[in-house]
Structure formats: structure tokens, C-alpha cells
Specification:
Elements (H helix, E strand, L loop, with lengths): L13 E9 L9 E10 L5 E6 L8 H7 L3 H4 L5 H12 L3 E4 L2 H14 L8 E4 H8 L10 H8 L9 H16 L12 E2 L2
Parallel strand pairs: 1-4, 4-5
Antiparallel strand pairs: 1-2, 2-3, 5-6
Helix pairs in contact: 5-7, 6-7
């Protein structure tokens, strides 16, 4: 008698893996310049969401150097209030997932508050915390996105662009979940929204 292969855990739940690029590090002082997301799981084909966002002010040179997003690129982009409803509809009913989720979720929820949009009660999964709970220091020296992308050999390399980073994180999530028993996501990998 052969043992059946374990089922792909992404088939039992739907995840929206999101990444945001911003003009700085704190949501109360900075704005979103790009939102990228990938919807996976539930036996459905992968879907993507990507939008540049006009931050309403200049992008610091250091951020442009990091992300490659320029003032010219976002000058004709819609403001965050016009982009958020589409993103929220895209993510509805899914586990919202991000690498270092407090950063991305902090910016998204602050943007919703600033636009007077209700922030949904998402279940949130942080792939950085999940990696810390299932990876050993012998496997990876740290749980940075680029390190994990290298370990799992993701097809998409993280590059500080929202959709590319979300795609890499989706592949990392799949690799992390396959290392765990089904339905055994550690509590430390979840944060409240």
C-alpha cells in the first residue's frame, strides 16, 4: 500500500499576498506609491492586482533609488482612495498575507482610515514570522525576503516592486506551508489586523 502524497495546502484556502511600496517607513508620515497582490489557492487560477498610486507629493530620491518608482511614473496614477476599493474587493474573503506584514498592513489600514474606508477584518499571515517558526538557522541566516527567495528558488526575484515582491512571497508561502502539517500554522505567524 502506498501513502498518498500530501495535498497542496494552498488548495484548501485562498490567500492574497500583498506588497506595498511607499515614500517612507511610517504610515503617519509617508504614502503608498504602489500596491501589488497575488491571489492563490482554493483550486482557482492565480490572479494578480497591480497599481501605481499617486502619493500626493514627491518621492524621496533614496526611495526612488530603492524601488525605481519615480515622480514621473506616478504623476498620472490615481490617488490611493481610488485604488483601495479595487484592492479590497480583490482581497475579500482571503487570508491577507505579507512578508513583514505589520509594515504593509499598517500602510493599507492607515490609507483606508485616511480615505474613510472601512478596513475589513482580514485574517492576516506574516510570512517572515512563519519562516522564523519553520526554518532553522542552519538553512537560512535570516528570514529576509531575498534570502528566502534564494532558498526556495522562486521564479520571481524580489526587487522592491510591489507585484514582483508579492509573487516571490507567494512562492515562499507555498514552500513554507509545505513544510508544515496541514492546518498547523503557528500562532506566531498570525497578527491581528
Amino acid at each position: 500500500m502506498t501513502t498518498p502524497a500530501p495535498a497542496d495546502p494552498l488548495l484548501s484556502a485562498q490567500f492574497v499576498i500583498v506588497d506595498v511600496e511607499t515614500t517612507g517607513w511610517l504610515p503617519e508620515e509617508s504614502s503608498i506609491t504602489e500596491i501589488g497582490a497575488v491571489r492563490v489557492g482554493g483550486g482557482q487560477p492565480e490572479l494578480e492586482f497591480s497599481a501605481l498610486v499617486n502619493p500626493g507629493g514627491p518621492i524621496p530620491a533614496s526611495i526612488t533609488e530603492l524601488t525605481g518608482i519615480t515622480d514621473a511614473m506616478v504623476s498620472q496614477a490615481p490617488p490611493v482612495g481610488a485604488v483601495l476599493p479595487g484592492f479590497l474587493a480583490f482581497a475579500r474573503g482571503c487570508v491577507l498575507t505579507a512578508h513583514n506584514a505589520p509594515f504593509d498592513i499598517g500602510f493599507l489600514s492607515a490609507a483606508c482610515q485616511g480615505c474613510r474606508l472601512p478596513w475589513p477584518a482580514f485574517q492576516v499571515l506574516d510570512t517572515a514570522e512563519l519562516a522564523r517558526s519553520v526554518m532553522s538557522e542552519a538553512e537560512v541566516p535570516d528570514c529576509k525576503l531575498a534570502t528566502l527567495a534564494g532558498f526556495f528558488g522562486t521564479r520571481t526575484r524580489p526587487c522592491h516592486r510591489a507585484l514582483a515582491d508579492a509573487k516571490a512571497t507567494a512562492e515562499i508561502l507555498q514552500g513554507l506551508l509545505l513544510r508544515m502539517p496541514p492546518a498547523d500554522v503557528p500562532a506566531g505567524a498570525q497578527i491581528s489586523a
